[in-house]
Amino acid sequence: MVQAGLFHMILRSCRRAVAPSPGLVLISPPFLYALILLAAPIVGVVMLSFWSQDFLEIQRDFTFANYQTAWTERVYQVLMLRSIKVALLVTVATVLLAFPMAYFLSFHIPKRRKQLWLFLITIPFWTSYLVRIFLWKVILGYNGVINGTLTTLGIIDEPLRFILYNQAAVVMTLSHAWAPFAVLPIYVALEKIDRSLLEASVDLGDGPLRRFFRITLPLAMPGVVAAVLIVFIPTVGDYITPNLVGGPNGLMIANMIEVQFKKANNDPLGAALALSAMALVGTMALLFIWATRKYLRSPS
Amino acid sequence: MSIRSSALLSLYVGFFLIFLYAPTLLLPLFAFNDSTIVAFPLSGFTTAWFAGLLDVPALHEATINSLAVALTSAVLATCLGILAARATTRYRFRLMHGMLGLIMLPMVLPEMIIAVAFLVVILHLGFSLSLFSIILGHVLLCTPFSVAILRTAFQGLDHNYEDASTDLGYSRWATFRLIIVPMVLPGVVASLLISFTISLDEFIIAFFLSGTETTLPVYIWGQLRFPQRVPNVLALGTLLLAISLGLMITAEFFRRRGLRKLGLSTQESVL
Fold first, then answer.
1. CATH 1.10.3720.10 is the classification of domain A75-297
2. Considering only CB atoms, which chain A residues are within 8 Å of B228?
């Protein structure tokens, strides 16, 4: 009897070791899809970035030349730094714009209305991205809405030229495009704050400002961090906005990557630029997460 | 909070909403405006720009391509999403978080990187670009959103229902068909609609991977170079906005109905 039981146990443990878990079987198709169509192509890009191209012929000799070009030549340095700068400005502007909105949603809107308000904020986001960016060109343009209206009203004689085709236009357009994405995570974090903590802080003599900086802001930080990452990472690689409203001095690294892959026929350099941008963004994101963790742990 | 700062906040929210809605409100306004120059003052009402969309074969072709791509991508992404959501909410296994992490990665990766990676692999393996390559890219992009939505749907699924069904003598297949499917169906519909909308609007991947056949956003991009075509593009944009809004409202309706079915609060939103 005991032997039979033991045998049964051994058999079962063997079967468990051999048969894969049902979860593993289920997740295999989506995982393999991502492995084959995302991980493998990225490995391909990494390999390509160490090769070189002679017109249409790819030379498969290992070389650092592409990275050397990407990191030392003036034009690429300028574009890379500009992309980072624009993304940082967009991130700061978007989070600063979004925070009061999220605060209003969380603290000033009755519970049953919140869903409606959230929906209200996401509606503009469902306009075609391309058309939305283009509409900013229409609004800011030489014959655009702002200039046309101001001229008709007699406020200005000549259309303003400085509002389109520069970095400021790129920053504004992108801040608009990302606004809902920043509001939502901050709102979720604010919703999670235990309201009795706020009362406690007032009871202990904190004014509204002190309460905000000691209780609300630290507890909302996870949402702010999420918003920063959601906005910053894709913005560095944005292609459409710089192309439509940036003008010659507003172009960013993604536009150059496209040129390398299409017109310049230098795929390896394009790959090196894309990977360098990704590495830079990834490092900055990790540093940011580390810094905020440190800030939240420190007693204030 | 004092009354003054409260009023200040309300005022700010007003400005924020105007900023947020400015392009969206101008879109239909100029789509119906009787002038090729997009500026104030408005000169009259016309539906000519919408009518003008009817006789452009390239636009119709792009629309059919876009619908086919979006439909296929939505179905495939949702199938993959169902598998990943079920696997990660019902079972625990080694490397689960790592695997899920890779599946969710396209959500935070700049689309440019995905597009470039696809382009490199497709061209250097000697395949030609087609709508199929766009679909492959869009499935990759939509799957994380699908997983996020469906994980909430599957998380609300109480194991006791499944156990009760098995105890009462139903087979695993019958349990799946009669218990699990009806309970997660609203999540599935929401995932299909959101994936469809994302694919329909996606530009970068379609731009890089389209060969001779284009999708709607790639067609619009081509039209933006011609000033005289702008009003038509705005009319097209208005139509797209109306369709997306309709889809999103339907998705939200199904998601809420699903949450109510599971006896959960409808206050949380995936959007």
1. yes
2. none
